[in-house]
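User: Predict the structure for this protein chain, please.
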Amino acid sequence: MKYTIVPARDVKTIPRYELGLIIHDVQANDFGEYECHVTNQYGSEYARLRLEKRSSHFIMQIAIYFGLLVLLSLILFSSYLCCHHACRVDQ
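Assistant: Here is the predicted structure, written as structure tokens:
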């Protein structure tokens, strides 16, 4: 089954019913706009939402931060070795 509708009861200030839509095995053609229309004896309601693919920028940011951390570590380690070598030469 591609889609599952999950009922959920949510009672806060007034009783209301909510439904959730689960999309199994999301593919590229699943991204886009979804609409929900509801009508009962009290009236009607309409909602629209857009399902978008997450950006891969997060992974790129992690890679950049990791690369900068490695570079900074190499610079600090090189500075330590230079200072340590200079101190030994002075003695």
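The two ends are 77 Å apart (CA to CA).
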